[in-house]
Specification:
The protein is mainly α. It folds into 2 domains: 131 residues, Rossmann fold; 35 residues. β2, α5 and β3 form a beta-alpha-beta unit. α2 runs parallel beside α4.
């Protein structure tokens, strides 16, 4: 989706930024870091760095500190407005993998951004997330058995030999567990 947006809006005054949530990186994926990542993506596409970004950097570099969430959000909002983007697309992938407290705070920050910002979120179904997006356009996507089979077979073919032995043992154990003496 991100690549598609970047391709179709290549020559327009449109920004595309994304966050990929990962349950294995929950410590690093705190809300200030996620908003900072969005800011970085918006800024790095520009030929010239704005005075707001320079002053934020200089202030915290001089003091050996890190900007607060409010500072990151305010600077992101300022960049969106200063650059006068016709549209900004923010894609949040796997929101369900973000801890619930962080999820709520992240959505609050993203919803506080200017109206030019369009938010797209992917997630497994969780009622808490569904409540956050009541009334939003929603597209349910489900993997079909054939796609899952093709994916698993492809992973097995590329797996190192030692992983195949572990996988084989796991399959045997699962079958024994499910037979239950039949």
């Amino acid at each position: 989706m991100v690549h598609h947006l970047q391709t179709i809006f290549k020559d327009d005054n449109v920004a595309v930024a994304c966050i990929y949530c990962n349950y294995k990186e929950q410590i690093e994926q705190e809300v200030p870091n996620l908003v900072a990542s969005l800011l970085k993506q918006i800024v790095q596409d520009q030929c010239e760095t704005s005075d707001n970004v320079k002053s934020l950097y200089q202030l915290h570099n001089d003091q050996s500190t890190r900007p607060t969430l409010d500072e990151f959000t305010a600077t992101l909002e300022s960049e969106i407005q200063v650059r006068a983007y016709s549209k900004v697309f923010i894609v949040v992938d796997a929101l369900d993998e973000c801890p619930e407290d962080n999820r709520v705070n992240l959505l609050d920050e993203l919803r506080s951004l200017p109206k030019a910002v369009n938010l797209m979120v992917t997630s497994r179904y969780l009622s808490s997330i569904a409540r956050e997006f009541q009334g939003a356009i929603r597209l349910d996507i489900r993997a079909n058995d054939q796609d899952v089979r093709r994916y698993v077979k492809g992973r097995i073919v590329r797996a190192p030999r030692q992983h195949l032995k572990v996988l084989q043992e796991s399959i045997v154990n699962k079958i024994v567990e499910n037979v239950r003496g039949m």
